[in-house]
Every structure is written in structure tokens, then in C-alpha cells.
Amino acid sequence: MPMYDYECPTCGDFTEMRPMAESSLPQPCPYCEVPSRRVIRRTPAFSTVSAATRTAHATNERSADRPSLLSEVGPKHKHGPGCGCGSSGKGRSVLRTPDGAKGFPTARPWMISH
User: Fold this and answer.
1) What are the Putative regulatory protein FmdB zinc ribbon domain coordinates in residue numbering (predicted)?
2) Please, which residues have CB within 8 angstroms of residue 10's CB and are 6 or more apart in sequence?
3) What confidence score (pLDDT) does residue 41 get?
4) Contact criterion met (CB below 8 Å) for 72 and 62
5) Which residue from 3, 11, 18, 19 is spatially nearest to 36, judged by alpha carbons?
């Protein structure tokens, strides 16, 4: 349940945990029991949300409008290690048959080369 701020005319501000459906109703002051109106001093806090969940929500909010790019978080080339396409700077071995066809001994036999 969220916590809301209320203002007692005699005792001052206090915070109470209430259901969202009852948040706009007057809340009795815990000291003098005078009905007090709700005031917005800060955003409502959810006390039952764990720290890990709050961190996950914050991370989600930061990445909602623009996801991280691989160039910002990962390796500088776009293919993974051992790709063999030549973009990593290391070529792969090529086997040429007498009729000119290419074969790649390190590749999977069912893959068609590009």
C-alpha cells in the first residue's frame, strides 16, 4: 500500500499508509484524531516494494525511450567471437577444390557460405 501525507490543523503533517481508493478521503490524525486533509508534499511511496524491484523499475524507466547500443556497452565489432566473416580482422581458412568451389573446413558442413 502507498503512504500519503496528511495535514492536521493542530498537530501538523503526518504520513499514513492507506489503500489508493481511500487516498483522497480525510484521515484521522494519529495524535488528536481530528479528520485531516491529504496534502501533496512528495510522491506517494510504496513501502512493500523491495530494493531490487525499485532498482529494476528505475533501470526500466531509464531505458524506456532509448535502449543501450552495443557500441556503448559491448565489443567494438558487431559480430561475436569466432564469427569468421572477416570483420574481426582474422580470416578463416578456405579450401579450394580443383573446379574452383570454396569450402571452409572449420565451418559447419550444413551451412552454405555467402
Assistant:
1) 1-41
2) 29, 32, 34
3) 77
4) no
5) 11
Nearest Cα neighbor of 44 from 82, 97, 6 is 6
Stated length of the chain: 114
Q: What phi-psi label fits residue 82: left (phi over 0), alpha (psi between -120 and 50 degrees) or beta?
A: left
Contact yes or no for 10/38 (Cβ under 8 A): no
Instruction: For residue 6, count CB atoms less than 10 angstroms from its CB and return exposed for 0-12, middle for 13-18, buried for 19 or more.
Output: buried
What CA–CA distance (Å, rounded) separates 111 from 95? Answer: 15
pTM here is: 0.38
In this prediction, residue 8 carries a pLDDT of 92
pLDDT average per 10 residues of sequence, the chain (114 residues):
87 88 88 90 67 80 64 60 56 77 70 61
**Could you give the C-alpha distances from 45 to 8, 40, 41, 42, in angstroms and in order?**
20, 12, 11, 9
Side chain identity, residue 2: P
CA quadruple 79, 84, 89, 90: dihedral sign: positive
